[in-house]
Each structure stands twice: as structure tokens, then as C-alpha cells.
Amino acid sequence: MERAARIRRSCLAVPGSSVKMLEKARGLPADQVFLDLEDAVAPLAKPDARKNVVAALNEGDWGGRTRVVRVNDLTTPWTYRDVVEVVEGAGASLDCVMLPKVQSASHVQWLDLTLTQVEKALGLEVGRIGIEAQIENAAGLVNVDAIAGASPRVETVIFGPADFMASVNMRSLVVGALIPEYPGDPYHYILMRILMAARMHDKQAIDGPFLQIRDVDGFREVAKRSAALGFDGKWVLHPGQIDAANEVYSPAQADYDHAELILDAYEFYTSEAGGRLGAVMLGDEMIDEASRKMALVIAAKGRAAGM
Ligand code: GLV
Ligand code: MG
């Protein structure tokens, strides 16, 4: 089935254990909400969190936001029950399931088959619920190409920096911050690796959380780095980070306007009227098929952002 490309500049984490925060999330201007059953929820609170999440999805009125539930990872005893309870309880009101700490394509295939079973049992459209795969350790990164291509349900490949940094023994406790002892950007390889795998399979690439929730400037700095590479959005943990994410992952107005001009010029020079005028020019700028493609990317992001 055709999967719609969703806008995901800001992906808001909401702990499934907090009825109050689940309620509040409905009114916040994030492109996506993900209701968390994993690390934001203590082990003993998980059964109740599943019920809260099902109720919150069924209450509806998420105002067009993409609705995602993050289940527990496949090394725990909770994953199957998370998927079955949430999809049986609210499958028709759910857009994607997020699987954390994915280590191989088989993890994604397990989720794909399990979703198919529950969809069939309930008479839901098979394949509609998408998958978001979090890359959070060395195995996940090494296998990221196969993970991104493991199922047509996969919509996003997500960098999980906190777990990732812990799993490879990175010497920093501050997610996203540059490390003074290292004369470069320690995240560059990881982000590019994820981006290449995502793009090879036509998926979105999403950056993970920035934990210093009061430091919006710090959030912006880190977000700008992945946005510059081509990432589609970033997690937000606090309402204060949402506007910054929506802004950073939308094109700058000047770039958007310029992209639309390039597309107009290209259209004119390849039309009946302009087709014999020679090289495609916009002022002093020469435009070819490749620059048209670059403009298409910026224009599509801008239009999706309502520019
Ligand atoms: C997110 O899950 C992270 O570990 O950073
Ligand atoms: Mg994590």
C-alpha cells in the first residue's frame, strides 16, 4: 500500500503513565505525538500505562497529529503484550508503532508480522499501521540498512542518542553536546549513517532527544546540525522545544521563496514559450535538472510546513 509522507518536524514524547500529560499533549503544536510505554514508564507502571495509552488514543481529537506508541524493546518481556493490547484496544486510532533498540531486520519483521496478525483478527486494513525504528546501539547502526528496508511499514529511522552513547561508552553525559576532548562532531558519522540508510529506502530520518529541557538555545544548536544534513525532525520532550523544532526543520523563508522561483523558472524555460531561449537562468544563476531537484526538496518541505 502507498504510505503517506507525514510531516514530523517535532515528535513529542509523552509518558504513558501520566494521564495529565497525555491529556495536555492533545493541545500542543507538535507534528507527532508518541505515547511512551518504554523508558519513561517504570516497570511496575507498565500495565496501567498500556490502559492509559489505549484510552487516550480512543478519546480521539488529536487534531491531525501523527499518533504513535513506543512499545518496549524485544529484549524485555513486555513487547508482545504492549503491541497486542494497544493495537487490539485502539488500532484504528493509531498511525505507527515505535520499536526501540532495534538490532536487526528480524526485530522489524517480528513487529510487522505481529501487527498483521492483530490487524487480520480485528478486520483492520492490513499494513496501515507504520513502524518507526530506533537505532540505539552498535548492532542497530551496523545493521541499519537492512533495518530501514526490513518492511514496507517502516516510515522512520530514529537516532536514540542517550542509549546509543551509553552502549558505545561515549565519554559524555550530555546528549547532543560536543565533547571538548574530540576535535570534531562525534555524532556526524552516526547521523549520516542513519540518513543514508533512511534515504536508500525512501524513509524519514529523525533525530532523538535533547535532555536539557530548559536550554532551548542548546536544543536549537543540536537540531540545526541534523537539519543541515537533511534530517526531517527531532524529538521534543517539553512544550518549550516544539516551536524551535518546527522552525529549525522547516526551510528558511528565503530558501523556500528561492526554491519556488527556481521551479517557476525551470517550468518556463522548458515550456513551449521559453523552450528555445537556451540555458535555464534565474537572474545570474544557471539552473539544471539537479538544481531543480534540490529546489523540489526545499519546496516540498516548505509546502508541507504550510509556507
Ligand atoms: C532515546 O530513546 C534515546 O535513548 O536517546
Ligand atoms: Mg532510548
**What is the assigned CATH homologous superfamily of the largest domain?**
Phosphoenolpyruvate-binding domains
Tell me the CATH topology of the largest domain.
TIM Barrel
As a whole number of angstroms, the C-alpha radius of gyration is 21 Å
The tally of helices reads: 12
Q: What is the H/E order?
A: EHEHEHEHEHHEHHEHEHHEEH
What's the pLDDT, averaged over the residues? 94
Proper CATH architecture of the largest domain: Alpha-Beta Barrel
Number of domains: 2
Per DSSP E runs of 2 or more residues, the count of β-strands stands at: 10
> Tell me, what is the CATH class of the largest domain?
Alpha Beta
Organism: Phytohabitans houttuyneae
GO biological process, one term: oxaloacetate metabolic process
Cofactor: Mg(2+)
Binding site for substrate: 70, 136
Task: Provide an overview of this structure.
The protein has 307 residues and is of the alpha/beta class. It folds into 2 domains: 10-249, Alpha-Beta Barrel (TIM Barrel), CATH 3.20.20; 253-305, no CATH class. Helix content is 45%, strand content 14%. It has 12 helices and 10 strands. The two termini are 29 Å apart. The model has no long low-confidence stretch (mean pLDDT 94). It binds glyoxylic acid (GLV) and magnesium ion. Residues 100, 134, 136, 160-163, 208-209 line the site of glyoxylic acid (GLV).
How does the SSE layout of this entry go?
Layout: E1 10-15, H1 19-25, E2 32-36, H2 46-58, E3 66-70, H3 79-90, E4 96-99, H4 105-122, E5 130-135, H5 138-142, H6 144-148, E6 154-159, H7 161-167, H8 188-200, E7 204-207, H9 216-229, E8 233-236, H10 239-248, H11 253-269, E9 281-282, E10 285-286, H12 289-304
Parallel strand pairs: 1-2, 1-8, 2-3, 3-4, 4-5, 5-6, 6-7, 7-8
Antiparallel strand pairs: 9-10
Helix pairs in contact: 2-3, 3-4, 9-10, 11-12
Glyoxylic acid binds near residues 160, 161, 163 and 208.
Keywords: Lyase, Magnesium, Metal-binding
Pfam families: HpcH_HpaI
Organism: Phytohabitans houttuyneae
